[in-house]
Structures are given as structure tokens and as C-alpha cells.
Write a structure and sequence with these properties.
By secondary structure, the protein is mainly α. Helices cover 70% and strands 5% of the residues. A two-stranded antiparallel ribbon has the order 1-2. It is globular, with a radius of gyration of 19 Å. 50% of the residues are buried.
Length: 309
Amino acid sequence: MPGRTMTIYLPIAEVSVDALWIFGLGWIVGILSGMFGVGGGFLITPLLIFSGIPSAVAVATATNQIVASSVSGLFAHLRRKNVDLRMGTVLMIGGLVGAAIGVGIFNWMRRMGQVDLMITLSYVILLGTIGAMMLVEGTRALLRQRSGVVPARKRHNWVHNLPLKMKFRVSGLYISVIPPLLVGTGVGVLSGIMGVGGGFIMVPAMIYLLGMPTKVVVGTSLFQIIFVTAFTTMLHATTNYTVDILLGLMLILGGVVGAQIGTRIGMRLRAEQLRILMALLVLLVAGQLALGLILRPDELYSLEVLRGR
């Protein structure tokens, strides 16, 4: 790289990287975590892959950084009492189950030698779909607000008629625990396969499916993300041995600082503006990954030789 660098060697990833660049990635993702209530894995994992980190190491190590940046952002929201701990616990239970399933799928695809293709295609399809939906909805909400016609969001739908109801006082809801458990499980599966916190799915699901107030969604999402991604990291470390501690520490240092900055920025922006900004970021990452598949078709499939066999 041109200019002055601080190159270090990562033993697990078996590559040399610029420490300042990795720290910068963690800082940027930390800001996004505090702003949007996402762990930032949807961005950090592709960026690590673009930086030359093997995809298996990027997925496993990204969850390590997500934990740190989410903890930093959560403390800021706890001080403002914007966290529904009961809802977060229900989401977490589903997330732990989903994470175990996701890591199992990841391990199976790694043995098949197709883990790189699976990760890339998963990001392109999922981020493209979610980003487009969020952009359309956020734009509509912003236009309604500017025109002076802002209808009250529907708080009750078929989801609220399901059995096993529980009262969530902070969110002002009395709904079934089944939808939060399913949302948490789905996000946990994505965490195990893609190395994401899943906030880019959980945040809109909490708002539009569960009917939670926007002000408590971000903090509650971070609460769930911390436990699920920590569990995912442990599973990857003990089954795949692909967690690079040195890489994770550099990302954590940047992420903790960035999360505090992002929380302050997020408090100054309207909910509709936050959703539009997040949607644009998601679409940008999806587009970059799709472009890489088109321009480098020779990398669509890769074979990986597992050690110890």
C-alpha cells in the first residue's frame, strides 16, 4: 500500500494487513452500530473479504467485533432507558437456537468447499432485498411527513392475535412471544452463516411486524445482538478454529470508539432519515458484492483443503 503503513501478520488468516486500515473499518462499523442499532456485520464481513481476509475467518471474526461495538452502543441507550429488556430476552432465546443451526450449515458448506460462494450469494440476495424494501418504506414515510400527512402506524395485526401472549411494558405491547422467537431464530441463523448481527433485518421486523416504538428498537436490537453474536463467535472458535484474535482486537478498538459517536449522531436524526441512510448502505454493499461476482466469475467456486485430514 502507498504511504506509511503498520503492517502486521495475522496467524489464523495467514495474511498481512495494514493495522490502521483494520482499525478504521472497526471505527466506521462502530459508528453504524450506534446510529442504526445494527451490529455492523453486514458491512464489516464484506469489507474484510475485500481486504484479503479469507471468508471463513472474516465471518467468524466479524462476530467478535460486533459484540464489542454493540456493548458500547447498548450502554448509551441504557442510560436513556430506551431498551426493552424483556423483549430483548425473548429475541435472544430464539437467536441462540438459530445461531447453532447457522453454524451447523456453515460447517457443512465448508466441508463441501462452497462456503465462499454461499456467503457471497447470501449477502447479495438478502441485502439487496432488505435494502430495497427499507428504501421504499423510508422514502414513503419521509414524503408523508413532509406533506403533513403522517398517519399513525398500525400497532395491531394478525401477529398480535397469536397465543402465548406476554406484556412488554417498555414497548407498550401485549403480544404473543411466537413472532419475536421466530424473528430471533432467523437472525441467529444469519449470524452463524454470514457473520452478521442481523440488526438490518431485526430493526425493520421489530418496527413493522411487532409494532415496537422506534425509540426502543435500536437499544433492544443491540441487547439481543450481543448475546447471539458472542455465542456464534464461541461456536466458530471451537468448531472451525477460524477466529483470529489479533484481527478481532483491532476491530474492537475501533468499534468501541465509533459506537459512542454513532449513538450521538443517531439521536439527532429522524427515524425516517435513519432508515433511508441504512437502506442506501445495505444496497451499496450488495451492489459491490454482486459486481465482484460478475467481474470475477473465476472466483464463483472455490475448493478448500481442510487441515488435519
